[in-house]
Write a structure and sequence with these properties.
Length: 130
């Protein structure tokens, strides 16, 4: 299961649309490792500036790795996180998450990071089974 959905939120979803702020809270509480990583990268990007902020440290365990994969593999979760934080997210391997500012000035760096070349250059035998 990707998220721990409270019964009241599930009832709302069954009746119709759900407010995105409630979904954000569900993601935050269900996937704390992923939430903390992404929010810390967003903070780093805003404080330090630059073209991107990224994580290159593997998750501490399989539970954390699973949270990160679920957060970034789900279009709904990933899109919600991007809108909530006002950033673009990119993902390589099992743990390399990058946060980019939005806007045309970041488009080229985002395109380089998410390119086939960028993916190939980010490979390492150490990451083979991540």
């Amino acid at each position: 299961m990707s998220l721990d959905v409270p019964p009241a939120l599930l009832d709302k979803a069954e009746r119709g649309e759900v407010d995105e702020t409630e979904f954000v809270d569900c993601v935050r509480t269900s996937l704390p490792y992923a939430w903390n990583m992404i929010s810390s990268l967003v903070t780093r990007l805003k404080v330090e500036g630059g073209e991107l902020a990224d994580n290159q440290v593997p998750p501490p365990d399989e539970q954390a790795r699973g949270q990160l994969l679920r957060a970034l593999a789900s279009d709904a979760i990933r899109g919600t996180l991007e809108r909530h934080f006002g950033v673009r997210l990119a993902f390589q391997n099992c743990h390399r998450v990058a946060v980019f500012p939005t806007g045309p000035e970041a488009d080229e760096r985002y395109a380089r990071f998410t390119s086939v070349r960028g993916q190939l250059l980010n490979q390492s035998p150490l990451l083979r089974d991540c």
